[in-house]
Amino acid sequence: MSLLEVRNLSIAAGASTLVEQVDLDLAEGEVLGLVGESGSGKTITCRALMRLLPAGELRISAGSIHLNGRDLARASEAEMRKVRGVEIGMIFQNPNSHLDPVMRIGDQIAESVRYHEGASAGEARSRAIELLRQVGIPDPARRMAAYPHEFSGGMRQRAMIAVALACRPKILIADEPTTALDVTVQAQVLRLLLDLRDRLGLAIVLVTHNLGVVAQTCDSLAVMYAGRVMERGPKRELLRMPAHPYTAALLGCQPGSANPAEPLPAIPGQPPAAGAFPAGCRFHPRCPRAAAICESERPALRALRDRRVAACHFAVAP
Ligand SMILES: Nc1ncnc2c1ncn2[C@@H]1O[C@H](COP(=O)(O)OP(=O)(O)OP(=O)(O)O)[C@@H](O)[C@H]1O
Ligand code: SF4
Ligand SMILES: [Mg+2]
Q: Which ligand is nearest to the CA of 15?
């Protein structure tokens, strides 16, 4: 059973639709990777799940986001304040923009625990120390008093994860959480996320550009292009034998013959600008397999074998 069930989600800016008809499912303890080129709509999809789209600029124009029997797409702002941080936590690429630079790390975590759980000052402090320990910060009781600038990049990212987990959310949305870190620290933070998944049963939506990260970390994948999901399914099958030409192009191979060990070539051509999507299949101007039908008819997402779905007129599960 899905913990989070997103159906037909569309996001618009004025009259133009930037993200269209996105379906996603997330089960308890599952790590779902969201991949796709820059501008494909990964971040605004994540922000829509938390109802954190910039007001007056972007809005959810269709669809539903079901969590524990409620539709977050229709929840009031008061209800969403009880969801954010409590049921769904979020971490971002840049911890500096989400940690308060003039507040001690320990206070930032403890305040969240007190605000959401009504804990006493002493309980909140113990929980903050425990959280810092869980995310692998050495000597956590002493580190409680540190300010964000006293931490290294990797430690700040860990502290942000501790803040996000302060109220024991079941879901963590992580938008490129390791992109700004060097490779060794990236690997440590990813290991930490997997460890938290194992220990806490945390379900994670992980946005990443890095297919190596996907291969190591995710259980399932959703591949986005030009605001739509092109292919979804279990990671192993999808990486080994992509059914959709776009997934295959991302992997630098032909459908049915992925070799993730190969370096990634850039896909020739540019993705379309938001709101100026081509008719038919949005990938057709760049697709090596495009036929006449692709220019006029939009392929629907179709179920293939092995819990896989793909939006391509010619997709077959290999
Ligand atoms: N506030 C906004 N108003 C209008 N358009 C926006 C706004 N925010 C994002 N967009 C557009 O929505 C599209 C999707 O943006 P988004 O940031 O979700 O892409 P992304 O897949 O996260 O890319 P990246 O990999 O570079 O982070 C882009 O074309 C972007 O220009
Ligand atoms: S529908 Fe056509 S253009 Fe689109 S991915 Fe499939 S073959 Fe390529
Ligand atoms: Mg983004």
A: 1
- Residue 259 has a pLDDT of 52
| CA torsion through residues 200, 203, 209, 212, sign | positive
pLDDT digits (tens, 9 = 90+) for 265-305: 568 888 998 888 999 999 999 999 999 999 999 999 999 98
- Backbone φ and ψ for 299, nearest 5 degrees, come out as -75, 135
Closest ligand 2 atom to residue 315 Cα is 6
Q: Is the CB of 44 under 6 A from ligand 1?
A: yes
Domain annotation for the chain: domains and CATH numbers: 2-218 (3.40.50.300), 222-310 (no CATH)
How many A from CA of 161 to the centre of ligand 2? 39
Residues 61 and 11: beta-carbon distance below 8 Å: yes
Share of the chain above pLDDT 90, in %: 64
Mutate to test the pocket of ligand 1, among 34, 40, 60, 207 (most ligand atoms within 8 A of CB): 40
What is the model's pLDDT at position 254? 47
Our answer on whether the CB atom of 38 is closer than 6 Å to any ligand 1 atom is yes
User: How many Cα atoms are found within 13 Å in the side-chain-facing hemisphere of 314?
Assistant: 14
Residue 185 has pLDDT above 90, yes or no: no
**Residues 55/253, Cβ–Cβ less than 8 Å:** no
Directed axis angle between helix 153-164 and helix 105-117, to 10°?
Answer: 10
CB distance 42 to ligand 1 below 6 Å: yes
User: What is the DSSP code (8-state) at residue 41?
Assistant: S
Q: For tokens 């302060």, what's the residue?
A: 166
pLDDT by residue (tens digit) across 223-238?
999 999 999 999 999 9
- Of the ligands numbered here, which is closest to the C-alpha atom of 36? 1
